[in-house]
Write a structure and sequence with these properties.
The protein has 13 helices and twelve strands. By secondary structure, it is α/β, with parallel strands linked by helices.
């Protein structure tokens, strides 16, 4: 919808200037192969479905009542699965909401917040939304974080690990170096993809009073439709997040989300088996795409970042789209010759490979 300047006079001046995030497309077309938003190709644990059905069965009794504002049951399930004390856990309506609270709670400072030029595109949006100063630090030519860049004055540090959309993991030794160099600012690690083979920094939380680790159930737990994210940090940081949350929405976690996410965290075996399948499919897909001439950055995520030297990435994305396969293309400096491709099932990945081989690259 096109809003006229005249209609805009009703908007708050700040809102007129917003540049909102554009989510990956959720097409309404049938038989489309969606490899564009890093969802998990497998269903959630059957225990999740049972838990939702149980809430449904009691819905006449419980839906009229507010849910637990603290989502204590969920915090306990996360604490148990992550092997951390329950008072180090914060939960929110998707990790996007948790991230928003982290920005508000820690990063509205005199000094700018530091993050890489190529990373999750919600960070500039939140920075603008909360009036946060930023200093953008380029990744090196191999798309890696330059640790020494993160040793300058700052009002906070944001690192996605593994990074998105590059899929590259930063080792915990480098992360500790950054944490130690910045004793007076909060370092936030967005670990949305950590369960696909990277090492989590949750184990460092007890050692560093300036560390916040953020994770989500959207990717590795197949619950993108449920909206459950969480953060782990020492209690003095959790307290700030609770203060922000209770100044915005006291009940972000509904009864379905709490019950389903608890069931997911209690079914560790399903979670591990499913992620192993995604990792195995990733390795197979990387091998097949390499054979077709693609260059692929080393991935520790449930997606790959791939370029084909012989073909324009934007064109390749449209040609795949014409054939019912959607991948993510970012028309941005440095990465406009890459495609971000979500790992599907082996069958789905094979459809991608066959389409490229038999229809596009002939
Ligand atoms: C998907 C993603 C999120 C958002 O996850 P939700 O919990 O679905 O809101 C956050 N950070 C990164 C880097 C992501 O890729």
């Amino acid at each position: 919808m096109n809003i006229t300047t005249e209609q805009m006079r009703f908007w708050s001046p700040e809102v007129r200037k917003l540049k909102p995030y554009t989510p990956g497309e959720q097409p309404k077309i049938q038989n489309i192969l969606k490899l564009n938003t890093n969802e998990n190709p497998y269903p959630p644990s059957p225990k999740v479905v049972e838990a939702v059905q149980k809430v449904l069965a009691n819905s006449a009794d419980v839906l009229r009542l507010y849910p637990d504002p603290d989502a204590s049951e969920l915090k306990q399930a996360i604490a148990k699965q992550q092997n951390v004390p329950v008072d180090t856990v914060f939960v929110g309506n998707g990790s996007d909401e948790v991230l928003a609270h982290i920005f508000k709670a820690f990063f509205v400072q005199e000094q700018p917040v530091l993050y890489p030029d190529i990373t999750y595109s919600f960070y500039p949006v939140y920075s603008q939304f909360f009036g946060i100063r930023t200093k953008i630090l380029p990744l090196n030519d191999d798309f890696e974080i330059v640790v020494d860049d993160y040793k300058q004055a700052n009002g906070g540090i944001i690192i996605t690990n593994p990074n998105a959309p590059t899929s590259i993991e930063l080792g915990l030794a480098a992360i500790e170096e950054i944490l130690q160099a910045n004793p007076d600012s909060v370092v936030m690690l967005d670990e949305a993809y950590v369960d696909f083979g990277a090492e989590s920094a949750v184990k460092l939380v007890e050692k560093y009073e300036n560390l916040v680790v953020c994770q989500t159930t959207s990717k590795s737990r197949s619950l993108a439709g449920l909206r459950v994210g969480f953060a782990i940090a020492q209690p003095h940081l959790i307290a700030a997040l609770e203060a922000v949350k209770n100044s915005f929405n006291s009940y972000p976690m509904d009864r379905f989300a709490i019950a389903a996410a608890v069931a997911s965290f209690e079914d560790q075996a399903y979670f591990e088996a499913q992620n192993q399948k995604v990792i195995a499919s990733r390795e197979k897909l990387v091998f097949q795409l390499n054979e077709l001439g693609f260059k692929i950055l080393p991935s520790s995520a449930n997606f790959i970042f791939a370029s084909l030297p012989s073909k324009d990435a934007g064109e390749l994305a449209s040609e795949l789209r014409e054939r019912g396969i959607i991948v993510r293309y970012f028309n941005k400096p440095r990465i406009n010759q890459f495609l971000r491709i979500t790992i599907g099932t082996d069958e789905q990945n094979q459809r991608l490979v066959d389409t490229l081989k038999n229809e596009i690259l002939v």
